[in-house]
Write a structure and sequence with these properties.
By secondary structure, the protein is of the alpha/beta class. The chain has one domain: 2-enoyl-CoA Hydratase, Chain A, domain 1. It is built from 11 helices and 9 strands. A 6-stranded mixed beta sheet has the order 1-2-3-5-7-9, sandwiched between helices. Strand 1 and strand 2 form a beta hairpin. Helix 6 crosses helix 10. The longest helix is centred in the last third of the chain and has 34 residues. The radius of gyration is 18 Å and the shape is globular. The protein starts with 24 loop residues before the first helix and ends with a helix. The relative contact order is 0.12. Bound molecules: ligand LMJFFPRB. Ligand LMJFFPRB binds next to strand 4, helix 3, strand 6, helix 10 and helix 11. Homotrimer.
């Protein structure tokens, strides 16, 4: 098995682990690119056009983290290869008129990815090089630090604008990042923030003017985290995150049932259908 450190610089890592529920190696590796750098890896989402988090995309991200941790990778920069978009969040088509089996797999895979990334022993930096609504914002918040490209992109948990409700673990991640009051307001309003606004409320840590600067700043940020003794850094992170992680770990089944029942209601299905139409009409 190839290790992250043994592959040639910038070479794409194949996905090697097999699982009955997981997609094939070829389909997963086309969605996420892993590049080895000196002592860390860049994880680029490359599901065109908008890195929507479909079941396959979620599993590809999960699989990447499994491989990286197995290969003793110490840190990652999570970013996007899609111009102008970090991630458009959950693939709305997964929730619209789904089959029960697929909807279950979809949500359960998302729970797994959140538990992996939010609780990762690796140091994690999100390089948010474009829009990051809802699930895209969640992915970024799972990281230890967020660098955002300044410009027209927006970031936030906009679920209520779609007539859906961010689950407790989305809320916990938000509260742990920006605090209770800002979260209460932004969750209700489904606020999407400009990079400047996101910086002001602590949703992102640094802004960068262009991609060249972004890469350098993200690398420097990751190195700062990696200079700290790993166990001390990880256990300190867990002091903040462990309650939320424990909560979902202990209530996964109930959370899954709640999501499935909620997603299948007529009101939610109608709302998602209209939202999909409005996205399609734009083009
Ligand atoms: C009682 C309590 C119980 C609680 C339990 C229930 C909990 C349920 C919670 C579920 C949580 C959901 C979290 C989410 O992530 S929902 C998704 C939210 N995402 C969005 O709102 C983003 C929508 N997209 C956009 O705003 C824009 O696309 C963009 C990201 C700003 C990019 O704009 P741009 O102009 O560049 O691109 P287009 O809009 O033209 O899009 C290109 C094509 O991509 C399709 N698209 C976009 N986003 C999505 C998406 N999220 N899922 C699927 N498809 C998407 C779009 O339709 C275009 O497709 P087309 O080319 O075929 O027209």
């Amino acid at each position: 098995m190839m290790s992250v450190t043994s592959i040639a610089r910038n070479k794409v890592l194949p996905f090697l682990r097999k699982s009955t529920k997981m997609q094939s190696t070829a389909s997963l590796s086309s969605l996420v690119k892993l590049e080895e750098k000196q002592g860390y890896a860049v994880v680029s989402m490359q599901k065109t056009p908008v890195n929507s988090l479909s079941l396959e995309m979620i599993q590809a991200l999960s699989q990447s983290l499994i491989e990286l941790e197995k290969n003793k990778c110490k840190g990652i920069i999570l970013t996007s290869a899609c111009p102008g978009i970090f991630s458009a969040g959950l693939d709305i088509r997964e929730m619209y008129q789904p089959t029960d089996d697929r909807l279950n797999q979809f949500w359960s895979s998302l729970q797994t990815l959140w538990l992996q990334l939010y609780g990762s022993k690796m140091a994690t930096v999100a390089l948010i090089n474009g829009h990051a609504p809802a699930g895209g914002c969640l992915l970024a918040m799972c990281c230890d630090s967020r660098i955002m490209l300044n410009g027209k992109s927006k970031i936030g948990l906009n679920e209520t604008k779609l007539g859906i409700v961010a689950p407790s673990w989305f809320k916990d991640t938000f509260v742990n990042t920006i605090g209770v009051r800002q979260s209460e307001r932004a969750l209700q309003l489904g606020s999407l923030f400009s990079p400047e606004e996101a910086l002001k409320i602590g949703l992102v840590d640094k802004l960068v003017p262009d991609m060249e600067t972004a890469t350098a700043v993200a690398e420097a940020e990751l190195k700062e985290f990696l200079q700290i003794p790993g166990m001390a850094r990880y256990l300190s992170k867990m002091k903040i995150r462990e309650a939320a992680i424990k909560d979902l770990s202990e209530t996964r089944e109930a959370d899954l049932n709640q999501f499935v029942n909620f997603a299948k209601t007529d009101a939610v299905q109608k709302g998602l259908g209209l939202y999909l139409q409005s996205l399609a009409k734009k083009n």
